[in-house]
Each structure stands twice: as structure tokens, then as C-alpha cells.
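User: Is it possible to get a 3D structure for a protein together with its bound compound? The compound here is calcium ion. I've pasted both below.
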Amino acid sequence: MEVRPIGDNKVFLDMDPGIDDALALTVALKRMNVLGITTVAGNVSVDHTFQNASHVLRHEGQHVPVIAGAKEPLFYPLLTAEHIHGSAGLGDYTWDTNDVPVPPDDAWVWLFEKLRQQLQPCHLIATGPLTNIALLLLAFPTVLNHLASITCMAGGMPGAKLDKAAEFNVFVDPHAAEAVFRYGDHLQMVGINVTHRALLPIADLPKLKRYGRVGGLLFTLLSYYGNKSRGEGGDPNSFPVDDVVAVAAVDAPELFTWKTMPLTVVLEGRLRGTVILSPFDTNRPEVKVASDIDVPDFLDWFWQSFEL
Ligand code: BDR
Ligand code: CA
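Assistant: Yes, that's possible. Here is the predicted structure of the complex:
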């Protein structure tokens, strides 16, 4: 695969960093024109996700606005993933956070205003629970005129063989995912049926150290995360890097095979958070669902990002 030039895709990111979100943010900054970041509660509290996004940007010398969003899911209490991402969301990596105030939780209002100001529709990539995106769509339905696509790292393709029924981002806020599948448009879903195949070998992590400050931070973060999540996806020597796969879906959609289908979500009970085909509501938008991924080409794309 040839090295791709830096894309001119204008994107906003909505995320819950979280270690694989921090990786997705870093790669998006290399590949795309990132106009802003909204954070949401998910892997850790929204205070932490805001501070983590702000810190990664500062560490990488980037000036991109970060706005904190929803503190909890629409209806359920927040469930976090500290067992994988560490108590503050970036493993055992710490820094002085006193200088980073957390602004009010109105990220979706900010996002709507920013999207409206752009001359062309922009892409939105969501890699956390979909609470902010649901609130954006519910409060400002006309936002769809300003969006080229909404790509979510969420769920798993209905009918695919999955290693778990419900994926974290949908499980944590299934009502938000349901609102997005119902009221969104130009939707793309990148689920664990593909992200749990695009595995990064633990043995490859030292390669990150070639890439200066950025690579050094990622080496520290991913060493922690890799040890916690190795084996997810089936190979004990590798681990999934879920959120960066959603960045690839926007930057290099040709790496994927896509199917379109209307989706809905199981909201409660034993199957809470499972994404299923919507059999009844024909008014739902067709979602482009990633059904397959070219893993060697994805890994080439991934490593080439650090050369840009
Ligand atoms: C998703 O869950 C989170 O822990 C990760 O950041 C990713 O967004 C994968 O299921
Ligand atoms: Ca995430």
C-alpha cells in the first residue's frame, strides 16, 4: 500500500479517552483536519475524559478546542472501564491536572454551533458512548444538514460471529445508540466484528518509540492497555485497538467491506446493548455497517500514520 497524503477530511471527534481513544485522537490528528473534540463519560468520568483529551493534545503540541459533554448516560447510571483503562483513563500514566479546568457540560450545543459555521458538511467520529451524539440529534435535528457522516465505534454487526453480545459503548448507553440509529443519517458503524480482528501484536509496540514524544506516550499507554486487553479477539499475543479503526473507516474506507441495514438496540435485560436488525421501522436510516476489514492493509495504514 502506498503512503496516503494527509487527508483534507474535516472532522470533529466525540470520545471518552481512554487509551484507545487517545490513540485514535493521535492518528486522527496525523491523518485529518480535526476541528474540535467533545468528550463524554464512558471509560472514566467526563472530568477525566476531558482532562485526558486536553493532555494528549498538549503533549503533542496541538491546539484544538476540547469541550466536556454528558456526565452520564441518558437513563442508566454510568458504568466505567477502569479495569482496562486505569483509574483516570490513561493507565498508570499521570501528570499534574490542576491547571485544566472542566467547562460546563454543553458539548452538543457547542458542536452544533461549530458545525453550522463550516462552509461544507464535516465528518463526526464517535468512539465513546453515544450520549452526546444522541443529545445533538435530539436537540438540533437540522444538524444533519451539516454532517457528511457520523461514524461510530459501536456494537457488532447483527448476524456476525461476535466474541461478546454487547459492545461497551452501546451497553453503557443503549438509549443513546437507539436514538442515533433512529434519528441519524449518513451513519457508519464500526463494530467489534471488525475491530476484534484488526489486532496489534504486543511485540510490535516498541516500534512506537521511533516516533518521538508522540510515540513515547503511546508506547507507555498501549503497553498498559495491551497487557490488560491481550487475548480479546482470540490471540493471546495481540490486542484490539478498537477506536482507531473508526478513524480508518473515514480516512480509508476502502480497507473495509460494507453492508447497509437499519439497526435497533436491545435496551434492557440479558441482551442489553446488543445491536440487532430493525425489522419493523422502515423509516429508519440505512446504516453502513463494516462487515469485513483487510487486516494487513489496516496495519500498514496504522503504522504509516506515524510517518506522516
Ligand atoms: C470500546 O470500549 C471502550 O473501552 C473503548 O475505548 C472502545 O471505545 C470498545 O468496545
Ligand atoms: Ca472509547
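The first helix runs from residue 19 to 31. The pocket of beta-D-ribofuranose (ligand 1) is lined by residues 18, 20-21, 43, 81, 127-128, 153, 167-169, 242-243 (CB under 6 Å).
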